[in-house]
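hey team, just a heads up i'm posting the complex here instead of the shared drive bc the drive is being weird again. everything in one block, sequence lines first with there labels, then the predicted structure for the whole assembly after. its four chains so it's a bit long, scroll down
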Amino acid sequence: MAANSTVESIILGCLTTHPMSGYEIKQLISLSTSLFYNASYGSIYPILKKHEESGLVSVEELIENGRFKKIYHLTEKGYSAFLTWLEETPQPITMRNDMLVRLFFFNNLTREKQSDITRMYLDHLRDFRQRLENIAPAAAAYSDPYKEYTLRWGKDFYVFLIEWYEKLLSDLE
Amino acid sequence: MAANSTVESIILGCLTTHPMSGYEIKQLISLSTSLFYNASYGSIYPILKKHEESGLVSVEELIENGRFKKIYHLTEKGYSAFLTWLEETPQPITMRNDMLVRLFFFNNLTREKQSDITRMYLDHLRDFRQRLENIAPAAAAYSDPYKEYTLRWGKDFYVFLIEWYEKLLSDLE
DNA sequence: TTATTCATGTAATTTGTTACATGATTCT
DNA sequence: AGAATCATGTAACAAATTACATGAATAA
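-- predicted structure starts here --
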């Protein structure tokens, strides 16, 4: 009866802040947890349906500004399922880091290409970091220190990556 | 004709070091790239078949110590496909970081539970880091600086994580 | 008036893992 | 003798994305 996948729990977690629509959940995930856990509409809507069926959320249908909306509310059962999940042992970190895979095989390239490609990687990373910096103010409005912490983590992670590749580049030269 | 998924290219990349079996490819991936890109037999064997059909690898069948083996060799076509891939723009990093998801919703816990759970996270991270440290010597035998770099990355990443959560814990207390 | 955003949802496809099946060899 | 490792492979299943379909409101 408890939510058993992480996405299922994220959705419940979003609803702990306030009742919202599937669309709003997607937006919230996109500009907050997407860096370390993402979800698409194709996942969100079917899960909401499932949550409704198992009584973890309740649905309020309304028309706002002429737009049909379904606002999902967390039930008590849903909240306790969420709390149970929150204290469980976390899943190990998994990632797909394409740059590192390529670096693993760098010996197949000339020294010059190695440097060029590393510089390209750095450009990408700096670019991405900047984009993170730009969404920061919007997310800071939560006035929830833990949401700020996770946002900070994203920035710190990219600083770590940039410094790491800068070091690599200087080693190559 | 070129390999178009990352796993497809990793397999070609493994074969640039020397010809090997599907079993050996799986082992190599497990103790080298698995941290930032993993693959199971269920992916590897079908891809090898596909690579053979498209002429990127050739197969040598033999019996060694009474064991039937299929040794895969990279063809010239396969090597040039690999090199093309190697210079392409990398895919963005994606990850699943369950701890951060939970941290994002930490406001639903008492301060005491927050600290306890953070300590549990640190235990997990330190444990994992130690395991990385243990496989280091085996992988160092490659005498390929880039393979060592990626191994180092894994260790650096876990140092980053541990320091980050230590800082979090001291903030909580 | 046209593009974008808001809003919901499904079907097809992709991607990949897990579990199973098989069998020989080697280590304890 | 029995457990672990070597070795190949498939089928079932799971998870998730992409693309599509629909349509209203709003911003340019």
